[in-house]
Design brief:
Layout: H1 14-25, E1 32-39, E2 49-50, H2 54-61, H3 68-76, H4 81-88, E3 95-98, E4 104-105, E5 112-117, H5 118-123, H6 125-149, E6 153-156, H7 166-177, E7 181-182, H8 185-191, H9 201-205, H10 210-220, E8 226-228, H11 234-251, E9 258-261, H12 266-279, E10 286-289, H13 295-304, E11 311-314, H14 316-319, E12 329-336, E13 339-340, E14 357-363, E15 369-376, E16 386-388, E17 396-398, E18 404-406, E19 409-413, E20 416-417, H15 424-435, E21 453-456, H16 457-470
Parallel strand pairs: 6-7, 6-11, 8-9, 9-10, 10-11, 15-21
Antiparallel strand pairs: 1-5, 1-12, 2-4, 3-5, 3-19, 12-13, 14-15, 14-18, 16-17, 16-21, 19-20
Helix pairs in contact: 2-6, 3-4, 6-7, 6-13, 7-8, 7-15, 10-11, 11-12
Length: 471
Amino acid sequence: MPLSVNHWGLYTDFYELTMAQGYFLCGKKNDTCVFNYFFRVNPFKGGFTVFAGLDDFLKILVKFSFDDSDILYLKQNGFDDEFLKYLTNFRFNGTICSVKEGEIVFPNEPVMQIEGNIIECQLIESALLNIINFESLIATKAYRIKLVCGDRKFSDFGLRRAQGLGAIHATRAAAIGGVSSTSNVLSGKLFGIPLSGTQAHSWIQSFNSELDAFRAFVKTNPDNSTILVDTYDTLKSGVPNAIHVAKEMEVEGHRLKAIRLDSGDLAYLSKKSRRMLNDAGLEYVKIVASNQLNEHVIKSLLQDQHAEIDYFGVGTDLITGKDNAALDGVYKLAETNGEPRMKFSENVEKITLPGKKQLYRCYDKEGMFFRDAIMLYQEEAEQAEVIYHPVYTERNTVVKSLPKEPLLLPVVHDGKIITEEKSTDNIHKYLMERSCLLPEEHKRFISPHIYKVGISSELLKLRDTLAKKLK
């Protein structure tokens, strides 16, 4: 946990508590309900989203309760005494189904389904949205960078630019997406992520000469030294001094690991540096690049400019999810007391899907992701013969004979976590396996092909029937 908190009940929006009190006082506290979590738009104008944050949310969920100081604080804010007595013994005792962390998901499909009494389901909404939206955003950003890095590794250098303690969960999400290491030591310890880092310009400047700074650094780190070469003049001073020190290290039986470029024309400097290193017989010394990198810059460096860069350090754009401030995930009521519910809107794209549901992934004859089908929970997968576009129902796809995989799996039952915690490395491996099944046209950065998500005929009928009643 990023904070030393034993009781997370206050990790919610005020209106969640006022609604919960309202349910309690008007006799609805035992009403059962079903909520769905979904998002409406892929981030970064991309063709997919990486689902992340489930484990962090579940760790908060099992500690979602109220201690004496919380109850006193709520009393000072005007809450009813009987309701506060109820909160004294509050625990989430419901059931949650979810797609797996690392799964590739798409807009408007239910990727989490929460069941329980209406108070417990309402109170956990804000925490769920806070964690899942944020980590899914960062994991998606990291995986987009992974796509352009290919076999090259990249590290999270974003702690100093992150939004406060959000850096902790962001680093975890980045590891799910593909970073091989992090400069964030606390996240490294919490989540088992390898650490990496070099030195700042201040180290170099604190010595009387750049050569003295390099010598002192490699002496203290003889087997894991990366030297920052752009404090003064990269090609006239930094790289020559790095070569000099690397040769001295060879005499002592050690090897310089890498040099780092942190400013200037990275493509030009990397190619010149590579030639200088090779001419000195230092082909084994790697070149690390940092400085305002993102997936678009890295793609240009590697594919257009043929930069000689082996490893990237990515900071601000990764850890903040630039250029998207947030994933627009929402949490909507789908059923109460066994009766389907939906939000109606004159804007048909904002009409929600009613009822308890299951999400199926349909595969084509090559075994690749083809369509996702949203069905009512009681329907069998084989019942789906045709799925329909949720808005433009004249668009439909025959899926009758296609293999189908249920994606919503139980993770919490009667308030107890029933899924096994996985490391970020294992979650990333799962992401890689799933990504291999996603056709390439959905991964491109410019005008990616839209992955089709449809609803069953039974769900379509239910939605249209409720919509007519609401009208």
